[in-house]
Amino acid sequence: MGRYVLRRLLQLIPVFFGTTFIIYALVWAIPVDPFAGKCGQRPCPPEYVAKMRADFNLDDNLLVQYIKYLGKLFTGNFGQTFSGVDVSTLIANAYPITIRLAIIALIIEAVIGIIAGVLTGLRKNGFLDNLVLISTLFLISLPVFVTGFVLKLLFNVSVPNSAPFFDLIVPGFVLGSLSMAYVARLTRTSIAENRRADFVRTAIAKGLPGKRVVGVHLLRNSVIPVVTFLGTDLGALMGGAIVTEGVFNIHGIGGLVFINIQQQQGVVVTGVVTLLVLVYLVMSLVVDLLYAVLDPRIRYE
Amino acid sequence: MGKRKMAAFVAVPAAVALLATGCGGGGSTAGADNSDGAVSIYGTEPQHPLTPGNTNEQGGIRVIDELYAGLVGFDPDNAKPYNLMAESITSSDAKVYDIKIKKGWKFHDGTEVKSHNFVDAWNYAALATNAQINADFFSQIQGFDEVHPDSKDAKPTAQTMSGLKVVGDYEFQVTLKAPFSVFPVKVGYEGFDPLPDVFFKDPKKFEQNPIGNGPMKFVSYTPNQDIKLTRFDGYQGQDAVHFKDLDIKTYSDLNTAYSDLQGGQLDFLDLMPPAALVGDKYKADLQGRALNTTLIDIDTIAVPYYVPGYNNPDLRKAISLSIDRDGIIKQVLNNAYTTANSYFASSLDGNVPNSCEFCKYDPEAAKAAFTKSGFTGKLTIASNSDGGHKEALTAVCNSITKVLGVSCDFVPQTSLGQFRSMITSHQATGMVRSDWSADYPSIENFLNPLYKTGASSNDSTYSNPAVDKLLEQADSTADKDGAIKLYQQAEALIAKDLPSIPLWSEKGTGGYSSKLSAAKLSWKRQPDLSSFRLAS
Question: Where is the ABC transmembrane type-1 domain (chain A) (predicted)?
Fold first, then answer.
């Protein structure tokens, strides 16, 4: 187990270099001078452009630029935006908000989704089953900005800039609604399938109480695909949610990346996306380890 | 961890301390309608550090306008200039200006505003090695070429402009290279605001915690979230504010800002999302709290002379006469614009309605001119498509095609940067969108930067020696009315040549929440905070 984790963690290193380089190169490859439209209808003064290009090493070739960037990164310096704001400050402001939002969304989708899935999986084709099927279909077919604006106006939600936990519940629900529908359906199928499995029949035959059969034997085995889904979903949620953040004016990581791609602030984009890649990799590692916990047949060596 | 975080930590206790002491009165502005409430307004992320010399876009100007006070202010209703920090600006020949400033004004750190604060700030902004965005605004001052050589590689041979002289603590003298009668209006531009002594000791540190002499002082800046300001009770200008705390909230989505305005979570919005403009929906939504103003701007399409076949006066006439401006404004632009029939914004002193003879819809005359031009081929209009220009310009193209029978396409460009670099490098292959918002309210600002040979925003590469000569004469005419007449003559020549085709000017539309009882939107599309009153 320990060696497996170590190996997976070591794999992060080449991935880290690969992704940072690709992202840096992609931003660099945008063919437009980032200072061409910066002064509106006038061209910017050449001295200003020259100074900015020098400050951001934009006149070096790609490799030199990238190495200079990495050198700074290893001393803990994420660099600065064109307006002189530290990228680390931007991340420090935005990331806690994104994490809070992601956790709320995950809790909502996991709790509601799994409960709905179990109930419907146990009683197929009943009233509840049909209700859940139709409502999840409804959620899946609605674009997020529709759900977002409707709930925002309905509850008159306003998220303060600090985005405390309680204020993020409605946006979290919007963000998690689509995945919630998927989780419900995944759980339902999985439960329905495993109900007929040998180990469930044995458990019932042994005379175990229904609660224990469903809660321990059935659910634990049925939840593996759901955990996979939730794990990758959390990775995706940590990457921010441009639409939901936009609708509720939450200043999370998604909007930060979006704005900075538009402004060609390569330093910000690379810094944030690198962080996101690492988060995503760690998340998928955690999910893999969870399998072993849930299913004793899975062992990592 | 950056310094900015530190600044925020320092600023917050400072603000709390101010709140605790109550901060009553002191300034001459404390009046009956003063209230200690807080107001939140819409904002966008500043693109540059918050100093006057380095700020040129809406998001930053919004903050600069409150942090600093310049020599001249502008009336929110009619954009007429008035002396703000200036006691007087006098000149006998429009070349040497004697500027006296009011005594007793203070920066937010308690130091008095003296004439050297202006002179030093201007010298700093102009010096090439400081690489300030607004440097070119000082180019008319004598000695500018020494501190800011034309060639990029040349080093400045002086550190200060010879045309700036401190005469006394409250008086300084500005000598221009050539007479320029609009200078007293031009100094109302934000780039001419003064800076305190502490700035020059460490500009980088100052940027984290800017100190100005304006109606509001800096509290905190959280990147991508908000900027907080609070009233400066020692402020003596007539544009003082009548509430206490200001929160400039950063929004990435205009629709969200609009729904926050309706829900009362945002108190002022200076721009309506297109959906709210349809059928004047915002007026119904906001129930008497909608604002309309006259922005000082003009939208044109430039017809570059270097594009093959475009150097043809009859073609230009035909295009201009074939655009149904009124129809497009009604059908596509939700009546948020007014037809442009001159080269100036309509509210400016010196604008004469219909001074552009060909800026009207006349299909018959258009067809005749087109036949006369002998133009064959197709027309295109290019613009960046990310700012909502596509619909209107496509409609312009359709109107041209309908009347002239020539094919016309809208050519989208992915970003403003890409679009502008195409224009400045003279790579356009057709007509281009060319919009202009005034830096300061004067007809001069609608001619010199746009139509003088080699001017910074001369998108069509127009060059007419007669126009250049008239503009120079107008600039050097000390008498205001005489100068206006000369500018008008220059406009008349331009209107005959049609280097660009005026389309329309934008009306400003904004709104405020029920928390306020009064608010105004300025000609620059900025909130006029001095007119804000909290509803009781």
Answer: 95-291
Q: Is B155's Cβ below 8 Å from some Cβ in A?
A: no
The amino acid sitting at B470 is L
Which tokens hold the place of B116?
A: 């050297």
Neighbour count for residue B105 (Cβ, 10 Å): 20
What stretches of chain A show up as alpha helix (H) in DSSP?
2-29, 46-55, 62-74, 87-122, 127-141, 144-155, 169-194, 198-205, 210-212, 219-222, 224-238, 242-248, 253-262, 266-294
C-alpha separations of B483 from B73, B229, B348 in Å: 21, 40, 14
Q: How do residues B19-73 score in pLDDT, each as one tens digit?
A: 333 333 333 444 446 688 999 999 988 888 899 998 888 889 999 999 999 999 9
Selected residues 177-206 of chain B with any CB under 8 Å from a CB in chain A: 204
| Spatial separation of the C-alpha atoms in residues A25 and B326, rounded to whole Å | 47
CA gyration radius, chain A: 24
| Contact in structure between B420 and A36 (CB atoms under 8 Å) | yes
Whole-number Å distance between alpha carbons of B348 and A105: 54
* A115, part of any domain: yes
Residues A109 and A214 placed together within one structural domain of the fold = yes
Task: List, in order, residues 6 or more apart from A63 with CB less than 8 Å away.
Answer: none
Is A272 within a domain?
no
Q: Which of B252, B225, B275, B266 is nearest to A241 (CA)?
A: B252
Q: How many independent structural domains does chain A possess?
A: 2
Per the structure, the complete domain to which residue A12 belongs is given by 2-74
User: Chain A partners of B1 at a C-beta cutoff of 8 Å?
Assistant: 86, 88-89, 92
Tell me if chain B has a CB within 8 Å of the CB of A29.
no
CATH number of residue A251's parent domain: 1.10.3720.10
Same domain, A208 and A100: yes
Q: What is the ipTM of this complex?
A: 0.75
Q: Are residues A133 and A180 in the same domain?
A: yes
Q: Distance (Å) from the C-alpha of residue A141 to the closest C-alpha of chain B?
A: 22
Whole-angstrom Cα distance, residue A190 to residue A147? 28
* Residues paired with residue B103 on neighbouring β-strands, in sequence order: none
Is A86 part of a structural domain of the chain?
no
Write the pLDDT tens digit of every residue in B309-352: 999 999 999 999 999 999 999 999 888 899 999 999 988 989 99
**Contact between A249 and B252 using a beta-carbon 8 Å cutoff:** yes
**Alpha-helical regions (H) of B244-305:** 254-263, 274-277, 281-286
Classify residue A220: in a domain, yes or no: yes
- What residues of A are in contact with residue B436 (Cβ under 8 Å)? 41
Pair A38, A121 in one domain: no
Specify the amino acid at residue B145: D
A11 shares a domain with A140? no
Task: Work out whether the CA dihedral A184, A188, A190, A195 comes out positive or negative.
Answer: positive
Q: How far apart are CA B238 and CA A261, in angstroms?
A: 42
| DSSP code for B152 | T
Q: Is B413 on the interface with A (CB under 8 A)?
A: no
Q: Which of residues 85-104 of B touch A (CB under 8 A)?
A: none
**pLDDT tens digits, one per residue of A265-288:** 878 888 888 888 888 888 888 888
Do A177 and A45 fall into the same domain?
A: no
Q: Give the list of residues 6+ apart from residue A60 with CB closer than 8 angstroms, or none.
A: A68
